[in-house]
Amino acid sequence: MPENIFKVNEEEYMLPGNRACQGCGLSLAYRYALKALREDTILTIPASCLTVLHGLYPTTSVTIPCLNCTFASTAASAAGLVAGLTATGKTNTTVVAFAGDGGTYDIGIQALSGAAERGTDFIFVCYDNEGYMNTGTQRSSATPMGALTTTTPILTKEQNKKDMLKIMEAHDIAYIATTSPAYPLDLYDKFVKAKRIRGTRYMQIHVPCPPGWGYPPRDTVKIARLAIETGVFVLFEVENGKFRFTGRSKSLAEKGNRLPLINYIERQDRFKKMSVEQLSRFQKFIDNKWHEYIKKAEA
Amino acid sequence: MEKRDKNISAMSTPAIGEAGKTGDWRDMKPVIDHSKCIPSVKKRAACYLCWLYCPEGVIKTGIPVEIDMDYCKGCGVCAEECPAKAITMINEGDDNG
Ligand SMILES: Cc1ncc(C[n+]2csc(CCOP(=O)(O)OP(=O)(O)O)c2C)c(N)n1
Ligand code: SF4
Ligand code: SF4
Ligand code: SF4
Ligand SMILES: [Mg+2]
Question: Core-most of A46, B10, B45, B66, by most CB within 10 Å?
Answer without folding.
Answer: A46
